[in-house]
Each structure stands twice: as C-alpha cells, then as structure tokens.
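Input.
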Amino acid sequence: FRGKRVLEVGCGNGRLTFQYAAQATLVHAIDPSEKKIAEARQKIPPSLQQSLEFWSVGIENFFAPEKYDIVLLSWSL
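Output.
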C-alpha cells in the first residue's frame, strides 16, 4: 500500500482501513451504512486527517473523484 491511492468498498467501521491507511498516499473508503461511516470517522487519527476520507455511499452510486491504484472489497458481496 505504500504510496498508493486506495478505494475501499464496504469499509464498514474502518476495521480493515486503519490497518493499511498510514502507508497509503490517499484512501477513500465507502459504505452504504451511515452508522458505520460515523463510527469510522470518529476513529480517524490526526495523522490521517488529510489522506483518509470515509463516505456513506454504495458503490452503485459512487462517482470516483480519483484514479486508484488499489481497490479493496472486503465482505462486500
């Protein structure tokens, strides 16, 4: 993940996100659950404020503002 731009689909409360986010250049993490996204946002450490964003949106409605090097799908299907 070092230096990569990452999209995580189905991030939930960030359980996987926080394991790799510090290595990535940019992380956009999405999940349709507003509750889970709210939980994840509260866990963002100050060091990741500029490079990590959580959005409450399903993949079918997501418009990617970036090109990504890695796309993760964990427990999303």
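Residues 34-42 form the longest helix (9 residues).
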